[in-house]
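Field log, afternoon session.

UNIT: design team B
ACTIVITY: writing a sequence onto a fixed backbone
BACKBONE:
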């Protein structure tokens, strides 16, 4: 039992829908903490409004409340569960902390006799109130940047006059740096000051003297009730101060910090944590370090909760911070708890890394046309990837290969910039691709000193880039036949992909792969073990690298491979890579359930993914986790090493689906729906032909591969037209056009961005109602798991629409057509597993918009609304272990469930916020209503009349 035996029932507050600045890292930490508490026999009650997460699965907590995160909801739960002893708010990001404070101010915790654990209100207030934090740091002799708080424009102007420009403005009590800005001119200052005061819930900003060009570091700490403190990880930002840490490329362990400065930083972090409040739990501390030999250290901020960085630190070290933080909140001490990976050392043992991790953020600026793409103190990234390697260079390459932005790594792919002025401009104004531009600058001959002067990136990192460039230059002088083995091995050890090496040698990727085989240059797999191999690790959590052969005294030569292959039947699940708009946490939910279902069928389960924020990359979800890019070369090597029965691709969104063609070509079995059927549905033209053959109505259409063809089609189809490229996600590149001028401009732009793509031109059904159906098919029978009707008219992307389950205004005739079409299409595509079909309804006629024979965004939503484990069922069907007739379907929903999209437009104030066929929402929440008289439904339904943008 826990040390505090009074704690028997705990309320956990989740983080709600995903927004920029608060993503699925809180699904990961929340899920871990729930599992951790249940191990101790604690009753868990969860409130969270996000239907797409594992955290809100019925199995995760004793009672799950999918309710809005408001004090009204808290009161409802506390009345229904008077047994709740305590609340743990540190697992739900800033949203949970803010709600916790509001409930405290209203006296709710006191009224219901609920204790706060894991943090205390004073600690939250001290760390969030910039002025209080600054005063506390002064009292404990921790240096901070000169700063003052302002509660009005007038106060702000007086402070600016005193400090002089440039300045940093930060709003109190906000998330992801909302309201933060660096200002260098008077006009920028006034604009940022007004905005900061407006977005702060207490209308207060802190104005700091800017520390631009200083280096930035983060430490992750845990403290127990006996005041033991352990530092889990030190993370260095490659980008200097001035770019939000969520938008920075970060590296662990710290690379350019001297040992003496590191010891000072540790002492300061521990002192800060001990002084902000008396609580047991996790903490994240950020520091700035002067870029000179003095290495002056200044405290930036401290967050008394698990954060995005703690998810990263957990995955980087293998130390489950949220799990241990939950135990500490119960009253355990660090020395009483086991290290979860070694099982033999204690949790007080600080992790040691014998590898390097690099995190690179993933942005979606293409979804926010007209947005300011320059990175600054306000976070703009929608997700992130992490690469693990034996060196910074290898980890950097693996991270860039994980991004899924059509790059093969750093340089050597023919996609770099070559224009001097453009490169300089991109270095001066940090944007999403600066990680690549540094390489381009070196390639162009710009001196490292000049790059350092512009970017303030430490010379150590720039020299690492230079070494990569010099290696590329050297390799390019050879041909495949003359390339020495040691050079090829060095390129692989530094993370270069076969595609990049092929680019240098002007040959094919497959030829490089063959050459590696001949020369015995093979990937080996190493354990993430928290202890630099000092102790035996019990957890199968791997990354790949390349090593030289070792020769023993008796002349035996070998390469150590930590990943031992069992003789069990295996299934590989391909993960969904980094979060982005159009592919978010809902696919991670599906992957996790796929892994669990495969395990129930008796398979050894193997997960491949590179997203550090997610539950799928937790070390104990699958039997084996390969933290690797979802990138062909890496996947193929793992498949050859493990020799699985097959690979599941239909749960990982477009990321996994895009690899189906190569898997099929290489004779690797795809579980469930075949590659041919997946491809048929993705190819807009072939799919429309299939509809025609099956007498299923669809809007008049034609396909085009050139602008000329598109213009000719327009005459036959009549405007308005909906243009849709093939093989894209989240409605990328979709647009409604009303004349030839718009058509030509958009088609030219699309074919430039997505060359060799087949475009589908539909006659757009103006004013139609949109609906969608998700179903499971076992090849013989079809079971529809849910039909949803959209509130917004057809033409707004389904991911951006409010949708009701079940439909609220469709007649029996229409519903029957939907059912008939769904069944016909699922069987015609030879679907085995999940399928999502979207419909347009006009004059009681149901037309098909598209079909996706894979897991869709709405599957977790329907599963939560009906309380049925649909992904589990679908996976068992894919594996051929069950037929639909084997399941006892029993969906239960009183009233309606509404899927409500959530947008992050506040990060891009000058962007066009009108909705159209390209998806822009970052997350969603679920809302249950008893009937259609509900006020919330009325408010949403009024949007039907909203003007639909093109």
């Amino acid at each position: 039992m826990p040390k505090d035996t009074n704690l028997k029932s705990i309320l956990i507050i989740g983080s709600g829908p995903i927004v920029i600045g608060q993503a699925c890292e809180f699904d990961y930490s929340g899920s871990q903490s729930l599992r951790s508490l249940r191990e101790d026999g604690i009753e868990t009650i969860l409130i969270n409004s996000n239907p797409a997460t594992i955290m809100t699965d019925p199995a995760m907590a004793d009672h799950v409340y999918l309710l809005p995160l408001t004090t009204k909801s808290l009161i409802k739960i506390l009345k229904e569960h008077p047994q709740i002893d305590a609340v743990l708010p540190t697992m739900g990001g800033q949203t949970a902390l803010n709600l916790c404070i509001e409930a405290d101010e209203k006296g709710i915790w006191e009224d219901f006799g609920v204790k706060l654990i894991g943090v205390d209100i004073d600690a939250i207030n001290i760390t969030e109130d910039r002025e209080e934090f600054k005063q506390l740091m002064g009292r404990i002799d921790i240096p901070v940047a000169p700063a003052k708080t302002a509660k009005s424009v007038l106060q702000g102007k007086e402070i600016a006059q005193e400090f002089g420009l440039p300045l940093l403005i930060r709003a109190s009590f906000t998330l992801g740096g909302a309201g933060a800005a660096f200002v260098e001119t008077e006009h920028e200052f006034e604009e940022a000051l007004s905005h900061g005061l407006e977005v702060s819930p207490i209308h207060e900003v802190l104005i700091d003297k800017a520390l631009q060009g200083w280096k930035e570091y983060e430490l992750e700490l845990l403290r127990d009730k006996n005041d033991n403190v352990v530092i889990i990880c030190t993370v260095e930002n490659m980008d200097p101060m001035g770019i939000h840490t969520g938008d920075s490329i970060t590296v662990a362990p710290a690379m350019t910090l001297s040992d003496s400065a590191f010891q000072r930083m540790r002492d300061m972090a521990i002192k800060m944590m001990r002084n902000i409040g008396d609580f047991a739990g996790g903490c994240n501390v950020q520091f700035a370090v002067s870029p000179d030999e003095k290495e002056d250290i200044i405290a930036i901020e401290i967050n008394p909760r698990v954060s995005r960085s703690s998810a990263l630190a957990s995955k980087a070290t293998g130390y489950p911070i949220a799990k241990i933080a939950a135990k500490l909140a119960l009253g355990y001490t660090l020395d009483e708890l086991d290290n979860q990976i070694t099982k033999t050392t204690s949790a007080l043992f600080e992790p040691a890394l014998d590898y390097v991790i690099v995190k690179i953020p993933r942005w979606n600026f293409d979804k926010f046309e007209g947005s300011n793409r320059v990175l600054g103190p306000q976070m703009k990234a929608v997700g992130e990837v992490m690469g693990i390697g034996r060196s910074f260079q290898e980890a950097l390459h693996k991270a860039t290969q994980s991004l899924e932005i059509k790059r093969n790594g750093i340089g050597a792919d023919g996609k770099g910039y070559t224009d001097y002025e453009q490169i300089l401009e991109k270095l001066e104004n940090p944007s999403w691709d600066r990680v690549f531009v540094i390489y381009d600058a070196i390639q162009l001959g710009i001196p490292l000193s000049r790059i350092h002067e512009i970017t303030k990136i430490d010379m150590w990192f720039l020299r690492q880039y230079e070494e990569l460039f010099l290696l590329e230059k050297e390799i390019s002088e050879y041909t495949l036949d003359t390339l020495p083995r040691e050079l090829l091995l060095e390129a692989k050890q530094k993370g270069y992909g076969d595609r990049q090496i092929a680019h240098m040698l002007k040959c094919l990727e497959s030829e490089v792969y063959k050459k590696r085989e001949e020369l015995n240059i093979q990937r080996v797999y190493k354990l993430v073990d928290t202890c630099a191999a000092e102790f035996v690790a019990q957890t199968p959590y791997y990354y790949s690298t390349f090593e030289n052969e070792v020769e023993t005294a008796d002349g035996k030569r070998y390469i150590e491979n930590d990943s031992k292959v069992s003789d069990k039947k295996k299934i590989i699940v391909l993960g969904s890579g980094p979060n982005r708009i159009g592919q978010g946490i809902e696919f991670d939910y599906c992957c996790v359930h796929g892994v669990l279902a495969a395990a129930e069928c008796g398979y050894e389960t193997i997960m491949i993914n590179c997203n550090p924020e997610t539950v799928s990359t937790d070390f104990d979800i699958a039997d084996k986790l390969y933290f690797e890019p979802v990138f062909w070369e890496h996947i193929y090597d793992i498949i050859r090493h493990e020799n699985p029965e097959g690979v599941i691709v239909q749960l990982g969104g477009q990321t996994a689906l895009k690899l189906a063609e190569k898997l099929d070509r290489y004779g690797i079995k795809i579980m469930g729906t075949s590659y041919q059927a997946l491809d048929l549905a993705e190819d807009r033209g072939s799919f429309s032909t299939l509809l025609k053959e099956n007498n299923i109505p669809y809007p008049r259409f034609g396909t085009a591969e050139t602008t000329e063809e598109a213009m000719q089609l327009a005459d036959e189809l009549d405007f308005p037209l909906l243009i849709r490229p093939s093989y894209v996600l989240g409605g990328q590149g979709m647009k409604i056009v009303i004349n030839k001028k718009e058509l030509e401009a958009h088609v030219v732009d699309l074919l430039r961005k997505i060359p060799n793509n087949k475009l589908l031109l539909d006659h757009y059904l103006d004013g139609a109602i949109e609906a969608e159906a998700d179903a499971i098919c076992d090849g013989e029978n079809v079971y529809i798991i849910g039909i949803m009707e959209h509130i917004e008219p057809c033409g707004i992307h389904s991911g951006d629409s409010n949708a009701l389950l079940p439909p609220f205004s469709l007649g029996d005739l229409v519903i029957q057509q939907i059912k008939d079409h769904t069944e016909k299409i699922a069987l015609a595509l030879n679907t085995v597993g999940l399928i999502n079909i979207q419909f347009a309804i006009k004059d009681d006629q149901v037309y098909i918009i598209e079909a996706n024979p894979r897991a869709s965004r709405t599957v977790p939503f329907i599963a939560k609304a009906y309380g049925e484990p649909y992904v589990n069922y679908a996976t068992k069907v894919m594996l051929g272990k069950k037929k639909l007739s084997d399941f006892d379907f029993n969906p239960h929903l009183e009233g309606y469930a509404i899927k409500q999209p959530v947008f992050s437009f506040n990060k891009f104030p000058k962007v066009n916020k009108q909705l159209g066929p390209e998806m822009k929402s970052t997350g969603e929440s679920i809302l249950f209503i008893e009937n259609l008289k509900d006020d919330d439904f009325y408010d949403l339904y009024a949007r039907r009349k909203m003007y639909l943008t093109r």
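LOG NOTE: The mean pLDDT is 91.
NEXT ACTIVITY: expression trials, pending approval
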